[in-house]
Write a structure and sequence with these properties.
Pfam family, one: BTAD
Radius of gyration: 28 Å
Protein name: Bacterial transcriptional activator domain-containing protein
Distance between the termini: 70 Å
Organism: Nocardioides silvaticus
TPR repeats: 175-208
Number of strands: 7
Domain Bacterial transcriptional activator: 562-700
Number of helices: 34
Shape: globular
Structural class: mainly alpha
Largest sheet: 4 strands, mixed
CATH superfamily of the domain at 297-453: Tetratricopeptide repeat domain
CATH topology of the domain at 297-453: Serine Threonine Protein Phosphatase 5, Tetratricopeptide repeat
């Protein structure tokens, strides 16, 4: 019978096994995609700790880096802390260990300790002279400089990190540094420069196995594309990142993708969907101790509930400001300012504007600076009613938005300037430009310039069914608490899906109460309740919005604005214009495509009755977007064509012609890394269908 080993012996054996595992699978381990290796490592780490043993830094920095790249910061910290007492580490391993440890401290918002350990890492790396270790030390140094707001030192650190990583052949660090350089441009509001830098990272990631470092490139590309107003491409990049995170079971990294998805909904004007995604991002960030996501997610929550729940909005903004931040607190500062201004607290708005201006200027964050200038301008306008100085400040902000390249914020600035100037024609032109860029009229529900101005001309009753169901009366959203019954809300959803066509009372009752006999009384109550929601003051005839007689019921599109009615009307007109080769085809197609931001009632627990409506509208949306992409390609407008092709693929992942079109357009634009990535996604989808894919060369011709 074998002799039972002591806990000390088990601990020592586990420490040795962890080193062997780390050396045997170093590259694929550091990439963070091997969940199985991490699980084996976790068991070994538990054995080491249970016996009071000390882990080797050689194992700790590799496993710690893997967990760091996965966004699992507490797990990464456990590995680093278990090896702090390693009595005789190899000098290179010690330098890599300290660089990785400093990076995790930074990611958790511990700037003071992060700087101290980063300094130790630099000394150790210079002493050992290893390029890989020196590169990691410069990365850590760059991160702590970013927190301090020293952009010159931050850039120098990243440039040196890149040079050493390239000499060492450390492709994971090369992609990481390229990604950080791109992120640096994003923070500064130089979105096109960010894309140029990130394109290099995409090319390296396509040629080498870099694990989740490549997925984080998609996160920063999405943020840059959002800044430029290229919403469909941004959503496509978010989908790429999300797929890679899910494939690697890196659930904590989903916080980054969820934050960007929420930002995309916020920019598009979908307050309810943005709020839901910010909540998801916050939950994941809190569980992982992710300081990079916590503050922005809380600020986003505050901005998206400002119209529905001012008290909660204020509380979220305060929490955002109280969080530790990795690269400054400009985002929560300007969010607090817009919320204060929207709630009429001019003194607080002025204070937050001043702080946001100072911080954005110190950090050279041009987009945030432009936003803060607009906040100050509108605060002064609200306080004095004078327009001369505010208009001058808005002109300054407009120059900044044009330099940034943000088509959306340039249009918003035009709307604000027109309102202060009393130019209704220019204001309407600005709102039409926003719609063509994919921004919904509901954007005025989100804290910011449009919320301060208020809706231009709200319909009496508006019903939104794409994505999340929402009803507004006279421009004010109807809270869930004002629906006395779930059946009355469902009744309005069903009738909205009919798009103004009458539905028999019998069919409506059967759908609401399947299999129940004698429901006429229940239906009458539900109809009356719905009417009370749509006309709370009983100011109109009972049938003004929701008409019914002894046989039928319907919503009246003449008095009720229904988004799917507007979409169908515009989509059919746009497709007809395209068939006739009208000069108006492209703007009409763009406007129609922007009206389908999500499938019909996608966020609702709708029954089977909604499936056919959802599928019909989705087919129409795909036809509009595909036609738009074809017209844009023919006109040589590559960038918007890419966005709409990605949108079609998001709607229908198995649309082979759109996959071909995307690969071909990207290759033709010399965006070869993206083209290879798009081709890989295409082959994966065809494999799911067991269809032989076309070769890359055959597609690009």
């Amino acid at each position: 019978m074998p002799e039972k080993r002591s806990s000390v012996e088990i601990s020592a054996a586990a420490a040795a096994a962890a080193v062997a595992l780390a050396h045997a699978h170093g590259d694929e381990l550091v990439g963070g995609t091997r969940r199985d290796l991490l699980d084996r490592g976790a068991a070994l780490l538990a054995d080491v700790l249970s016996g009071g043993g000390v882990l080797s830094m050689a194992a700790a920095w590799r496993f710690g880096a893997a967990h760091h790249y996965r966004g699992e910061y507490p797990n990464a910290m456990a590995w680093f802390q278990a090896a702090l007492a390693d009595p005789g580490p190899d000098p290179v391993d010690r330098a890599r260990f300290l660089g990785g440890y400093a990076s995790v401290l930074w990611a958790q918002g511990n700037a003071e300790d992060g700087r101290r350990v980063a300094d130790e890492a630099m000394i150790a790396a210079q002493e050992c002279g290893d390029d890989g270790a020196i590169g990691a030390a410069w990365v850590a140094n760059g991160l702590v400089q970013a927190h301090a707001g020293d952009r010159t030192a931050n850039l120098l650190a990243y440039e040196r990190a890149l040079a050493h990583a390239e000499r060492a052949g450390d492709v994971v660090t090369v992609v990481r540094v390229r990604n950080n350089l791109g992120s640096r441009h994003v923070e500064a509001g130089r979105f096109q420069q960010a894309l140029d830098e990130l394109d290099h990272a995409v090319a390296v990631a396509e040629d080498h196995a870099v694990g989740l470092a490549g997925a984080m490139v998609s996160v920063n590309r999405a943020e840059a594309l959002l800044g430029l107003g290229r919403l469909e491409e941004a959503v496509g990049e978010i989908t790429i990142a999300t797929d890679q995170f899910r494939s690697a079971e890196a659930t904590h990294l989903l916080a980054f993708a969820l934050l960007l998805e929420a930002d995309a909904h916020r920019v598009r004007g979908n307050a309810t969907r943005a709020h839901a995604k910010y909540l998801e991002a916050l939950e994941r960030a809190e569980s992982a101790g992710n300081a990079q996501v916590l503050g922005p997610a809380l600020a986003g929550l505050a901005e998206t509930v400002v119209a529905d729940d001012p008290t909660a909005s204020h509380a979220h903004a305060k929490r955002a400001l109280d969080q530790p931040h990795t690269v400054g607190d400009v985002i929560p500062l300007r969010a607090a300012g817009w919320i204060a201004l929207g709630q009429g607290d001019l003194e607080a708005a002025e204070m937050w504007a001043a702080r946001a201006l100072s911080e954005a200027g110190r950090r050279d964050q041009l987009a945030e600076l432009a936003d803060a200038i607009e906040l100050r301008a509108l605060t002064r306008w609200a306080a004095t009613g004078e327009t001369r100085d505010p208009l001058g400040q808005l002109a300054e902000a407009a120059d900044a938005w044009r330099e940034v390249g943000s088509a959306i914020r340039t249009a918003v600035n035009r709307i604000v300037t027109a309102r202060l100037s009393g130019d209704r024609g220019a204001e309407e032109a600005g709102r039409q430009a926003l719609q063509a860029l994919g921004v919904r009229a509901d954007a005025d529900r989100i804290a910011g310039p449009l919320h301060v101005l208020g809706a231009a001309a709200a319909p009496e009753v508006a019903i939104r069914t794409f994505g999340t169901f929402a009803v507004s009366v006279g421009g004010s959203p109807v809270p869930a608490s004002e629906w006395p019954s779930r059946k009355s809300r469902q009744l309005v959803q069903v009738l909205a899906g009919r798009r103004g066509r009458a539905m028999s009372r019998a069919a409506l009752a059967e759908l609401l109460w399947p299999g129940v006999r004698d429901t006429s009384g229940r239906l009458s109550v539900a109809l009356s309740t719905a009417r009370a929601v749509l006309d709370p003051g009983r100011q109109h005839d009972a049938d003004r919005y929701l008409a019914s007689d002894r046989s039928n019921a319907r919503l009246d599109p003449a008095t009720v604005s229904i988004d799917i009615v507007e979409f169908e009307r515009l989509a059919k007109a746009a497709l007809e214009a395209a068939r006739e080769r009208s000069a108006d085809a492209v703007p009409l197609l763009q406007a129609a495509a922007s009206l389908h931001p999500a499938p019909f009632l996608a966020d609702e627990t709708a029954d089977e009755w909604a499936d056919e409506i959802r599928d019909d509208l989705l087919r129409l949306a795909v036809e509009v977007k595909r036609t738009l992409a074809d017209r844009l390609v023919a006109a040589g407008s590559t960038e918007p064509a890419v966005g709409w092709l990605m949108s079609v693929i998001a709607d229908d992942p198995y649309d082979e012609p759109s996959h071909h079109g995307l690969v071909r357009v990207l290759a033709g634009a010399r965006r070869h890394g993206e083209a290879r990535r798009a081709y890989r996604a295409y082959t994966a989808r065809m494999a799911e269908l067991e269809v032989e894919p076309a070769t890359y060369d055959a597609i690009v011709g």
